[in-house]
Amino acid sequence: MDEHFLQLIDRYEELALTSAQAEVIMDQPRFTAIMKEMAELEPQVQAYQQYRAMKEEIASLDELLSHPELQEMAQEELDELQKSLAALEQELQLMRLPKDEDDERDVVMEIRAGAGGDEAALFGADLLRMYIRYAERQNYSVSLMSISENDIGGVKEVVFTVSGRGAFSKLKYESGVHRIQRVPATESQGRIHTSTATVAVLPVLDDVQIEINPNDLRVDVYRSSGKGGQHVNTTDSAVRITHLPSGLVVACQNERSQIKNHETAMKLLKLRLFEQAREERDAAYADNRKSQVGTGDRSERIRTYNFPQGRVTDHRIGLTLYQIDLIMDGDLEMLITPLQMDAQERLLAGNGVS
Predict the structure, then answer these.
(1) pLDDT in tens, 67-78
(2) What is the pLDDT of residue 176?
(3) What is the pLDDT of residue 296?
C-alpha cells in the first residue's frame, strides 16, 4: 500500500511544480487538465499523509508505555489512535479500488408502472415525487423529458434527467423493480394491494458516437399531454422517435421548441443504442437496462414499501427501516449509504482486502 501512495505523492508534487511554470499557466487547456488531476489526487495524498502522521504518533506513545507515571494516559490515547488508524487504513484501501468511471455523471431515469394497473401508475407518481425531492436535497437539478399519465394522476411512464456531481454514484442503486403494499384510495373494502414499478438509471455519456441512418427513423410530432404543474411543461411540439431496426422508442416534450425536443430525443436514442451495443458486447454489464428492470414481476423486487407497517425493506442487503414517510419525501440517504457501503465491502473482498 505504501508504494502506491508514495507514487501518488510524487505525481502530485510533480504536477504542483509544473502548474507553477509561466508557460503552463498561459496554456489554459493544459493548466486546467493539471489542476483537475491534482484535485483528484489531493484527497488520497492528504489521507495518506494523515495516516503516516498517525503511525508516527502511535510509535511515540509506545515509548511512553515504559514510564509508569504516563502509562495509563498513554494507553488510553493509544487505544483511540489505533481505532482511528484502522478506520483510515480501510479508507485508504477503498481509495485504491478501481472506480466506476460513470460515478460522476448525470443520469437519465425511467420509471414505468408495472403490475397493478392504476395503483401501479399512482406508485409511479409517488416514486417520481420521491426522486424529485431527493434531487432537491442533494442540490441536483431535474429536467423532464417525457411523461405519460392516466386520468387519476398516476404516471404510466416518465423519463427525466438528474444533473449534479456524483448523481450516478448515488442513484445507480435505484435500478430495479420497486414493490408497494398499501390499501388503494379506490379500495372500498380496505384490502391491501401489491403493485410494482420499474426504475432504470443510465449514465449520461458525453459525445456518444452512434451512427444512425435517417431512413431507420420514424418521427412523430404531437401535442404533449399531462396535468401540468411541476412535472410537465405543456408544449405543442412534442417529438417521438422510433428506431425501426431495434424497436426502441424515445420521446421528449420538455421544450416548447420542436427542434430542441428533437435534439434531446436523439441524444436519448443514441444513449439507449449505445447501452444496447455495450450489452451485446458484455452480457454481464451490471448496469444494462434489462438487468435493471427485469420484467416488472413482483418476485424480482429490489425494495418493498409497506405502508400499513410503515416500513421500507431493501432486499439486496436485508435492510428494513420504519421511516417510510421520510423516505417517500426524498430522504434516501438512509438507504443509499448502506448500499454504497455494501458495494465497497464486496469490492474489498473481491480484491483480497480483509
Answers:
(1) 777 778 888 888
(2) 93
(3) 46
pLDDT band at 106 (very low <50, low <70, confident <90, very high): very high
As a whole number of angstroms, the distance between CA 184 and CA 203 comes to 34
- Which amino acid would we find at residue 237? S
Q: How far is CA 139 from CA 143, 163, 235, in A?
A: 13, 9, 27
Task: Give the residue-averaged pLDDT of 300-307.
Answer: 92
How many Å apart are CA 224 and CA 231, to the nearest integer? 12
**Coil, helix or strand at residue 285:** coil
Q: How far apart are CA 347 and CA 354, in angstroms?
A: 10
pLDDT in tens, 191-227: 899 999 999 998 887 655 677 888 999 998 887 665 5
Alpha-carbon span 333 to 134, nearest angstrom: 9
What the chain holds in terms of domains, given with CATH numbers, is 2-96 (no CATH), 107-342 (3.30.70.1660)
CB 176 within 8 A of CB 302: yes
Distance CA 315, CA 142 (A): 27
Residue bearing cell 435492510: 319
Report the C-alpha gap between 232 and 250 in whole angstroms: 16
Instruction: Output the CA–CA distances (angstroms, integers) from residue 270 to 102, 205, 246, 308, 312, in the order listed.
Output: 17, 10, 12, 42, 35
For residue 346, the SS3 value is helix
pLDDT in tens, 283-296: 443 444 455 555 44
pLDDT value at residue 190: 78
Pairing of strands 319-321, 193-203: unpaired
**Phi and psi at residue 352, in whole multiples of 5°?**
75, 25
